[in-house]
Every structure is written in C-alpha cells, then in structure tokens.
Amino acid sequence: xxxxxxxxxxxxxxxxxxxxxxxxxxxxxxxxxxxxxxxxxxxxxxxxxxxxxxxxxxxxxxxxxxxxxxxxxxxxxxxxxxxxxxxxxxxxxxxxxxxxxxxxxxxxxxxxxxxxxxxxxxxxxxxxxxxxxxxxxxxxxxxxxxxxxxxxxxxxxxxxxxxxxxxxxxxxxxxxxxxxxxxx
Length: 184
Prior knowledge:
This protein is mainly alpha-helical. The protein has helices at residues 3-27, 30-51, 59-106, 120-126, 141-160, 172-175, 177-182, and strands at residues 112-113, 138-139. Helix 3 (59-106) packs antiparallel against helix 5 (141-160). The chain starts with a helix and ends with a helix.
C-alpha cells in the first residue's frame, strides 16, 4: 500500500473515532435529542409562519411570532453548542494525538506530489516535517492527513446526520439580504 493511501486510511480511521467520541458524549444523550427535535419543530413552524401571506392576525403580530420563534431557535442552538463543547475538546485532543502519530511514522517522507508549486505562505503547511532540500511541490503526510480529515469528517457528518440540522442557522443578512437592505 502506498504512503498516500496509508495516510488517507489513517485519516478515515481518525475521523471515525472522532465521530464515535462525539456520538458517545453528545449525540446519543436524551438532552441533545430533545434539543434536536425542538430545533427541527421550531424551524418548521418558522418556515410555515414565513410562508403565510396575509393569513390570520395582523402583520405586527405575525412579525412578533416570527421573532419569538427565531429567539427560541437561537437559544436551543446555543444550548446544544454548550453540550457539544466537551466533545469538541476531546476530539481536538485526539486529533493532536493522531497528528503526532502520523508525524512519528512518516517524518521526512514525501507522500504526495502536487501538480503545482504552492504559494510561499502555504508551503510551510505542505512541507511540514519534510527536509529543506525536498522539491517545492512535495507534500508531507501531515498535510494529507489534515485535508483527508476535513473531507472524511464532513462526509461522515452528512451521511450519519447525527448533529443539528444545518437549516436556517445562517444570519438573516446572508440568507435574505434584500430584506435587510429594505429594512424589513
């Protein structure tokens, strides 16, 4: 097995272990599951409220209901973020341990070659742990491990759907800039 595939396999294993830690510490708890259901229900209510045109009640009353639902969503998301803090710290420590192990096994070895020469500000990232005389387009195991971890973690998050829904967590000025500019 090539060095590149070995580093990617190790990255996949590390991402899997990190997700297992997150599952054990956060995602399987009743408190998190309750918050997740509450967020999903409030997002659905918020979308229904925004879809209603003219419906029952005055515009001010409807606007107050929308603001109330947005406030409840924000509070539930921040509470869930607090629950995820312990898991985030543990996963960070585990990732540092995995990076140390990768550096231990692949120190000074070129595991990949980039088809271009990276900019000087990125060269320190791609050459971490490589000797100074290595080619400028060489890639270290640390760089491949970190990039693989980013890809595999997002793929696992999307496939397993353990975390919070990504719905309307973006600020209003990002999702609907016309309303913000118009002062609505």
